[in-house]
Amino acid sequence: MSAQNVKPRILIIYTGGTIGMIENPDTHSLQPFDFTHLIDNVPKIKMLDYEIDNIQFNPPIDSSDMSPRHWVEIARHIEENFDRFDGFVVLHGTDTMAYTASALSFMLENLHKPVIITGSQLPIGEVRTDGEENLITALQVAAATDSTGEPIVQEVAILFENYLWRGNRATKMSADNFNAFKSNNYPPLARIGLDIHFNDEALWRVQAKRPLNVQYNLDPNVMIVDLNPGITEGILRHQLATPDIKGVVLKTFGSGNAPTAQWFTDAVREAVERGIVILNVTQCVNGGVHARLYAAGDQLASTGVVSGHDITSEAAITKMMYLFGLGLSVREVRRYLECSLCGEVTL
Length: 347
Ligand code: ASP
What we know:
Elements: E1 9-16, E2 21-23, E3 30-32, H1 35-40, E4 51-61, H2 68-81, E5 87-91, H3 97-107, E6 108-109, E7 115-118, H4 131-143, E8 156-160, E9 163-166, E10 171-172, E11 181-182, E12 190-192, E13 196-198, E14 213-214, E15 222-226, H5 233-240, E16 247-252, H6 262-273, E17 277-282, H7 295-301, E18 306-307, H8 313-325, H9 330-337
Parallel strand pairs: 1-4, 1-5, 5-7, 7-8, 15-16, 16-17, 17-18
Antiparallel strand pairs: 2-3, 6-14, 8-9, 9-12, 10-11, 12-13
């Protein structure tokens, strides 16, 4: 908001998720329901005195059904309404929220307004719901400006219970806890208590303000391969031979280690030589890949896999979709994977 006495204008994009679900009387399972039901349960919204508009997915979905097609839909709504609103709140299921946040962070190039994603663990109609508080706080974060009138948050972020996290750094940590998200390798962008305390040093700032540019092409020919002790040559080779596959997020042990058996190294090297980009991402929730620390990591690094450093798997897989979607060469994709595009990795 730049001028005084002008109400913040916020667009809510409701995609579905627990926050707006109701119980199916026949099966007793939760299913997505429409936005009017959701908003009727948050009368306090009027106390904010914002200009709020909304767009809803038709039909709203459980976020387990989220796909690149839906990310394109969310991004399109943001682009089409970008100049009319000061900030955006995306209501989303928690299950794949971190994937959506990561994907949008790459797709919305030059973003300099808040895109705050939130949802809840309990439906908004439940007495002990966390949805009401999350929605209200997300709206406040989306409307927050500094003394010069500039938005405080200028990136895609996840607001959940007591914290605001960078979207491409966050992971769903709990299926039960109200504090469901965490960023294990990056500090919170804000702590939510009696007040909202923004962490200025952690917030993303674009170098030079340029017009929003949305990348709609996402290449789905990427996959996550999770290692386990006992993985066989047949299984690994089968996965790496998946038709049309261009990129693999290889989830390795500890600081980026993998079995040292010759067949393993050969299978990975041959895949790299076939032009598959393999990104080494640790299975650990905290810390990152230090490829040369152990012989087992060194041997894997010698096959030509790219280090994912401390990137999350959600950011890694969506970054690959984005980079291949740009039509870049294997060499360029490898190069950009080693760079931080919008704060997704510490180098
Ligand atoms: N299954 C739900 C979803 O992701 C879970 C939630 O919203 O918390 O849509």
